[in-house]
Fold DUF748 domain-containing protein.
Amino acid sequence: MATKYKKRKIALITLMVVILSLIIIRLLLPSIVKNQVNKRLAEIDGYQGSISEVDLHLYRGAAKIFDFNIDKYNEKQLEPFINVPASEFSIEWKSLFKGAIVGEMTLFSPALNIDITSSGEAEQTGMEIDWVDLVKDLTPIRINTFRIENAQLDVDFPASEKPDFDFDMKEIDVLITNISNVEDKSHALPSDIKITSKISNYYGNLDVTAKANMLKEIPDMDMNMTLEGLRLESLNAFLTYYAGMDFESGTMNLYSEVALKDKAFEGYIKPTLHDPVIFEAKEEDRSLWQAAKELVTEGVQEIFENQKIEQTAAKIPISGTIEGASVNYWQAFVTNLRNAYIEALKNQLDNTIAFGEVAEK
């Protein structure tokens, strides 16, 4: 009887030790993970990175990271580069049921700041960082689904730079699925990509959809892009600097399809301008030469405009490899005339580019 009681006591003590050990590990694990992440971020040359907190949800195989920041050393001071208030990494359970141990990652309201130097070269873009390797180091398993919710991108030039140009994208949402090709191993382009955003200082709305093979070093891709509602007068900084004129009003839509296969690509870019006005008779503070130039430009634009719907448009074919591209200007000119005098180009994707028809270069 005493022996039986002694065995129960040992078993109970052992169980309590195990439970206590698990509790201690659970309490210490967030700090351990935080220190390991900060140690890896500290190894990024030219940058300073850190996180403030790690919250673990072991019951669902998830971890939440708070205040992920990477700043760049810039002339002995730190400049904000990436700020992610919160991000989450978790096991993708639907793939686990298919026999694949992969994860999903979500970045909540991240902000990315890119600065351009007065020399015209990017001083803060992060291009020198191997982000794929960094993510691999920070995540224990492969990522199969990647999300970005409500992101912001700011591209800034120095105040002295010409043209005076700042580029802001707001409300950026990104969804990339089946990155690790868990669901459809027979498909040439198994991953789906969806990107939407508002280009705030140009008043445009961006929508990108694509099929891709993310497992290749340079991914194969079949991409569609639409950019609609861009106000022409918001481009005046460029036009004034490079052409010495500006738009008074009008909008632009931009449509593009591009297929990339084994580093070769084919596609087109189709800009359509609606109600563009370059010359305004009542415009003040304008020289006679400036007025004459804008009047001539307005007249030429009218020649190539479809008068019924007040649209100027062209479809510009592009092709080549990632090392170099060629543009078919003659075909672009022909489509411009067709839009003006035969049939207006439609404000939509043409669906004329097929991934399987991309020729090897």
Remarks:
- The mean pLDDT is 79.
